[in-house]
Amino acid sequence: MKQKLQVLDHTISTTTKEGLEYICITDIARYKNSDRTDDLIRNWLRNRNTIEFLGIWEQLNNPDFKPVEFDGFKKQAGLNSFTLTPKQWIESTGAVGLISRAGRYGGTFAQKDIAFEFASWISVESKLYLIKEFQRLKEQEFQQLGWDIRRNLAKVNYLIHTDGIRENLIPESLTSDQINYVYASEADVLNVALFGVTARQWRDANSGATGNMRDHANIHQLLCLANLESMNAHFINEGLPQSERLIRLNGIAIRQMRVLVSTHSSTMLQGRG
Could you read off the pLDDT of 149-173 as tens digits, one per residue? Predict the structure, then answer.
């Protein structure tokens, strides 16, 4: 995502890094004061509520986040002597929710949830228009890509997933039948993590249905499934046992589906309004 958003006659840049979408909060700050964008962002970062929000977001989305350094910032937040820049926050805590870039086309970029929070601090009006424009852009992207693309995305990630199985879980001495069993077993790790049932249990409960449970999944489930396949391949490469991977994947599935369903519900309600 490198398109530009048009919000209240202001152009706001976007970018993507490692699968995360970011919005330029430097551009958002220009809505308030085009000459003091850096000062506005630093003042926002000094706020205790901001530090707590950023810390919670990182803990939910960034396994490499440094909680000890975060606690240090949280204790100082709000003091008159406390100052903090985006670069200091990123380098000290290992944060991924913010990106700080120098140069002509640089600025501070924030993951969309954080960008919406910053826009709310700037003004409620800017936040509402930013969310509406962002949703319009995403809906446009969804229409262009279509459901089949999401299904293909799940298939591509499944190839990554099976490569991880072949390279890390299947000894060369296994027979073809044994290899197929391992693949089926690993596929059911994802099925149970997301759908709560194995492929066979779904078939037994839906004997009259054509295709498999993934063919009957909705868009939210397919997007989540694509992420789970990549995460499972990563866990396999790390040597995690299947039981532990299942627990982790289930937790990821629950969090991601809550976010996806909540975002969809908000979009529908705003559309009705």
Answer: 555 556 655 655 555 555 554 434 5
- pLDDT single digits (tens) 98-109: 999 887 778 999
Residue 197 DSSP code: S
Which own/partner contact pairs does 99-106 have at CB distance under 8 Å and 24+ positions apart? 99/15, 99/17, 99/22, 105/13
Both structure tokens of 111 = 């993951």
Q: Is residue 139 part of a domain?
A: no
Residue 234 burial (C-beta neighbours within 10 Å; 0-12, 13-18, 19+): middle
The alpha carbon of residue 85 and the mean position of all alpha carbons in its chain are separated, in whole angstroms, by 24
- Residues of the domain holding 106: 5-122
Could you tell me if 156 and 207 lie in one domain? yes
Q: What percent of the chain has pLDDT over 90?
A: 19
Same domain as 104, residue 22: yes
Closest CA to 94 of 117, 118, 62: 62
> Of the candidates 21, 38, 44, which has an alpha carbon nearest to the alpha carbon of residue 97?
21
> Residue by residue, what is the 3-state secondary structure of 98-165?
EEEECCCCCEEEEEHHHHHHHHHHHCHHHHHHHHHHHHHHHHHHHHHHHHHHHHHHHHHHHHHHHHHH
Give, in order, the Cα–Cα distances in Å from 150 to each of 1, 135, 154: 16, 18, 6
Q: Are 117 and 160 within one domain? A: no
Asked if 228 and 177 sit in the same domain, the reply is: yes
